[in-house]
Write a structure and sequence with these properties.
The protein is α/β, with parallel strands linked by helices. It folds into two domains: 202 residues, Rossmann fold (3-Layer(aba) Sandwich); 109 residues, Orthogonal Bundle (Arc Repressor Mutant, subunit A). It is built from 15 helices and nine strands. Strands 3-2-1-4-5-9-8 form a seven-stranded mixed beta sheet, sandwiched between helices. A two-stranded parallel ribbon has the order 6-7. Helix 1 packs parallel to helix 6 and helix 6 runs antiparallel to helix 7.
């Protein structure tokens, strides 16, 4: 039997704590129904006898306090909620405890933005990690020694597991069930909870908002030019000239504060505009392509799929209710 500790943390997402426990208890139920022994022993571990997670009006009573806990096979970190820095500070006693258990052979899993707490332990430095698409830039800035993977639903490396955004944590739970029990049980669970077991990428859900929380006013001006003139062909030289910076310095500063090259940023802005058009209009692929400044259909389709994980047609069919109604 695998002993799993689910951290009952202040400033965390209650639904993920409950959902994780529900998942593993459901596996045990299915196994016991078929005459097999339970696979998991799950425990909620907390710093005190009652904790207040991020949901007003709810409290959690852990069945194990940190100082009385033993050695688990797996520790699960729930998503943080609210002010991440405050959440890390309030739950700080877990940090050395997680690191100690990991170094002693325990596996660690973080759900969604629980990756911020995972990274604060230091154990994922130099390793790959996933988190919610909307917080990737902040994560890269706060934890530069971690290789955060843009778009991944589930990442596994050296006994550390992490998941993409929001409900993607269910895909990580299915991954763990498949590893600890078998594929058949993971499929049964996916059908029971109506989860797509083979979803591997969160790119189609991502909304590119640009990275403007930086102090470089010239680069911010260049970003605004790109976003207002996405339908035009704008060269790097033209942008550098408009903000009165030499090209080499412009490219270096742009990359440093946005985590994108200039050309990558232009592509992301164009594709985001194309996505919005596919979601809300009945324009065909070529019309949208020209609207966002592409003239090469192969280049547009290739870039669109690279960014979203879907072809333009697949994306339109998935998200446009007008298309689905016709």
């Amino acid at each position: 039997m695998k002993i799993i500790y689910i951290l009952a943390m202040e400033h965390s997402v209650l639904q993920a704590i409950a959902g994780t426990q529900y998942c593993f208890n459901t596996v045990n139920f299915f196994l016991e129904q078929s005459g097999k022994p339970a696979a998991f022993g799950t425990h909620l571990v907390g710093l005190k006898e009652q904790i207040q997670p991020g949901s007003p009006g709810f409290s959690v009573n852990p069945d194990l306090l940190l100082e009385k806990s033993g050695k688990p096979d797996l520790i699960i970190i729930p998503p943080l909620f609210g002010d991440f820095d405050q959440a890390i500070s309030v739950n700080a006693p877990f940090l050395p405890w997680i690191k100690h258990h990991y170094e002693s052979g325990t596996e660690i899993a973080s759900l969604c933005v629980g990756a911020f707490f995972l990274a604060a332990t230091g154990i994922v430095n130099g390793k790959k990690c996933s988190t919610h698409w909307g917080f990737i830039d902040r994560f890269k800035s706060q934890f530069p020694e971690v290789e955060v993977l843009d778009g991944n639903i589930v990442t596994e490396e050296a006994g550390i597991y992490s998941s993409g955004g929001a409900n993607s944590y269910w895909n990580l739970l299915l991954h763990l069930v498949e590893k600890y029990v078998d594929r058949e049980m993971a499929i049964l669970l996916s059908k029971y909870f109506a989860i797509d077991i083979d979803r591997t990428n969160q790119s189609s859900f991502a909304i590119f908002q640009g990275q403007k929380e930086h102090p470089d006013s010239e680069i911010r001006k260049a970003q605004e030019i790109i976003e207002h003139r996405f339908g035009e062909r704008i060269s790097v030289d033209e942008l550098a000239d408009e903000v009165a910076i030499g090209r080499r310095s412009f490219e270096r500063r742009f990359k440093r504060v946005t985590n994108n090259s200039v050309l990558e940023y232009i592509q992301r802005v164009k594709i985001e505009a194309a996505k919005r058009s596919f979601e809300s209009s009945l324009k065909n692929i070529s019309e949208v392509m020209f609207d966002v400044g592409y003239t090469d259909s192969k280049a547009f389709r290739t870039t669109f799929k690279k960014v979203t994980g879907l072809t333009p047609i697949e994306y339109r069919n998935k998200y446009n209710k007008l298309v689905r109604a016709n």
